[in-house]
Amino acid sequence: MELSHTICRSARLARDPRFDGKFFIGVRTTGIYCRPICPAPSPKEQNVRYYPSAAAAAEAGLRPCLRCRPECSPGTPAWLGSPVTVSRALRLISEGAMEDDGVDALAERLGIGARHLRRLFLEHLGATPVAVAQTRRLLAAKKLIDETALPLTEIAIASGFGSIRRFNAAFRATWDRSPRELRRARSTIPAKGGPCALELRYRPPFDWAALLGFLSGRAIGGVEYVESDLYRRTIVTARGSGWLEVRQAGNNALSLTVHCPDAGDLLTIATRVRRLFDLDADPQTIATHLRHDPLLAPLVKARPGLRVPGAWDGFEIGVRAILGQQVSVAGASTLAGRLVATYGRPVAFEVEGLTHTFPAPATLAKADITGMPMARAEAIRQFARAVASGEVTFDAAVDSEAFHEKLCALSGIGPWTAQYIAMRALSDPDAFPASDLVLRRACGDYETESWRPWRAYAAMHIWQGVKDEKVDGLHMDGKSRRKAVAGGE
User: Fold this and answer.
1) SS3 of 344, please?
2) Enclosing H/E stretch for 110
3) What percent of the chain has pLDDT over 70?
């Protein structure tokens, strides 16, 4: 959906949370920029200008609003008319791709020239890659100042500033006050010495129950733990291991609590959790597209805000997908739990449901895996060797088609597995495991090309619709539906 001046104006005046993060409002008379949901009195239209990104507003010389806090808005939408290259670049920047290297290195990873990348960013985001990365650092640091008790030195390092002097100078130039002054002005003061907690915003609607139900059925014993309103898992980062917990917080946000040994990992963890729960999706745009299809229309209506679960770790999801070949979801979860108990690393903390971290690729590459068909064990080893060697990667620079080809070249991995991994590990919104038993029985010979570029969401709606057994229109009788639900991923 293209955001015209008329749409932006209506969303601003209505303070519509569905548009939060899709654009930002620059107010000429105050010199600040706001989110569409800002509670401050609405300025006159002649004093307003709309910007496609926070970086574009910052480039225009505007300061972030201290009241609506642009740093808390959902992520920059990769679906808002941007080409795939820009979407991939934004994800790489969110993963810290420009903390050590510049635009040239980023463009090289994407397979294009630096000048062309700058041109694409200016066209679609109104700012250069450098400006986008700098705005991200500033807003991320501001969020840590407001929501955590971390020392300012640790926040500077975690948000990508090379020195405290640069950190302080950037804050004074942006907010006209120092990080310390901003911290003193915050309304709530988190307790020191405990875990770090952050609120992760999303655009409504959000079907939390369905997403948690999907993750619960596929939870890996010892690594993940899911109950009524809680997701918990062990984590491994470049600096160590720990665990995290996610709950619904209300006010269009999830609450993330992180127990990790190094605060420098906090923003990376938050980014990965956002992808795991698909928090940057635009349910309104997706639903508008899919509900024109007669098969999907009742499913979309029944489950507004259904998300595509992502992955904490691409390798973990890949192994879980291989284990899920031709067995039930419950059977695959049992196999995954045994694999973790045998080859995973025991954790040093005592938390309900968490006992191990998931085995590393190098560990499974040489493991003598038993308790499953030999062909499947060998498929896991081959996949682990490919990931350990760097032949298969999961970062945003990966092209989906090339990724699919590489996976299918490995023994024991076919189109279903490759598409499922792309759906969750790459967050590819158009991945579609067409050979899936449920999808084949539900769709038959139904034409699915019109579902592009949201076929992954279509698949989720069909899987959920079959599970609910409450929506008409699926090409299955009751017996076939029950068998399909029990028969695979």
Assistant:
1) coil
2) helix 103-110
3) 94
Token pair of 6, please?
């008329």
Q: Are 428 and 400 within 8 A, CB to CB?
A: yes
More confidently predicted of 239 and 26: 26
Listed residue (32, 49, 39, 45) closest to 15, CA to CA: 39
334 pLDDT band, cuts 50/70/90, is very high
CA-to-CA separations, 301 to 1, 208, 277, 290, 306, in angstroms, rounded: 19, 16, 21, 10, 10
CB atoms within 10 A of CB 348: 7
Quote the CA–CA distance of 336 and 340 in Å, as a whole number. 6
Owner of token pair 């998300």? 307
Q: How far apart are CA 408 and CA 420, in angstroms?
A: 12
The C-alpha atoms of residue 302 and residue 192 are separated, in whole angstroms, by 44
Burial class (CB in 10 A: 0-12, 13-18, 19+), 21: buried
**For the whole model, what pTM was predicted?**
0.90
Taking the C-alpha atoms of residue 34 and residue 12, their distance in angstroms, rounded to an integer, is 10
Just list the catalytic residues: 34, 436
Least confident range of 73-82, 98-107, 244-253, 411-420: 73-82
DSSP, res 436: -
Q: Cβ distance 239 to 227 under 8 Å?
A: no
Q: How deeply is 30 buried, as exposed, middle or buried, from its count of CB atoms within 10 A (0-12, 13-18, 19+)?
A: middle
For 64-105, what is each residue's pLDDT tens digit?
999 999 999 987 555 455 567 888 888 888 888 887 788 999
pLDDT of residue 485: 43
Inter-residue contact 220 to 316 (CB < 8 Å)? yes
Q: How far apart are CA 424 and CA 350, in angstroms?
A: 29
Can you tell me which residue has the tokens 């109950």?
A: 227
Query: Which among 213, 225, 410, 434 is positioned nearest to 318, based on CA atoms?
Result: 410
- The number of angstroms, rounded, from the C-alpha of 124 to the middle of its chain's C-alpha atoms is 21
How far is Cα 298 from Cα 459, in angstroms, rounded to an integer? 14
Phi-psi region of 426 (alpha: psi -120 to 50; beta: other; left: phi over 0): alpha
Radius of gyration of the chain (CA): 23
Distance CA 54, CA 343 (A): 44
The model's pLDDT over 263-286, given as tens digits with 9 standing for 90+, comes to: 888 999 999 999 999 999 999 999
Domains and CATH numbers, the chain: 5-72 (3.40.10.10), 84-184 (1.10.10.60), 196-275 (3.30.310.20), 276-489 (1.10.340.30)
- The per-residue pLDDT for range 173-211, each reduced to its tens digit, is 999 999 999 999 887 777 777 789 999 999 999 999 999
Tokens 């017996």 found at = 479
Strand partners, 254: 200, 248
Average pLDDT over residues 157-165: 90
Q: The tokens 């969401």 sit on which residue?
A: 457
